[in-house]
Each structure stands twice: as structure tokens, then as C-alpha cells.
Sequence to fold (63 residues):
Amino acid sequence: VNGKAAHGFRPHLGVNAVEDAAKIIANLDRLELREHPDFGTGTVCTLKTEGGYTKYSVVVPES
Fold:
């Protein structure tokens, strides 16, 4: 997921990639997973997410 940086005073000019990723993760359970004849239905598990800057910033993160 990619975002677009924006100043915290005008966040509407940016895209918050962390919020967009959270929406995707929250809806993973809606996926219709295929069934394998030997292994059954697959699963999806979010193991790690990363985003933002290492320092405090008033800028909406790009990723």
C-alpha cells in the first residue's frame, strides 16, 4: 500500500497508507479462499505491518 505525504495541518491532501492497510487487513476474512483437494481451505494471517517514519513527524506517512 502506498500513500502520499501531507502536512498534519492539511491531511486531506495526502493519503495515509497505514489507514488504508488497516482497512485491507480488517477485511481479509471476507476473501473466498479456494479449497485444495489434499490440504483443504487455505488461510490468511497478517504477521507483520510497518509504516511511517522512525522519527515523530507532523506529516501523514507515505508507507
In short: The beta strands are 6-7, 35-36, 40-41, 59-60. The longest helix spans residues 17-26.
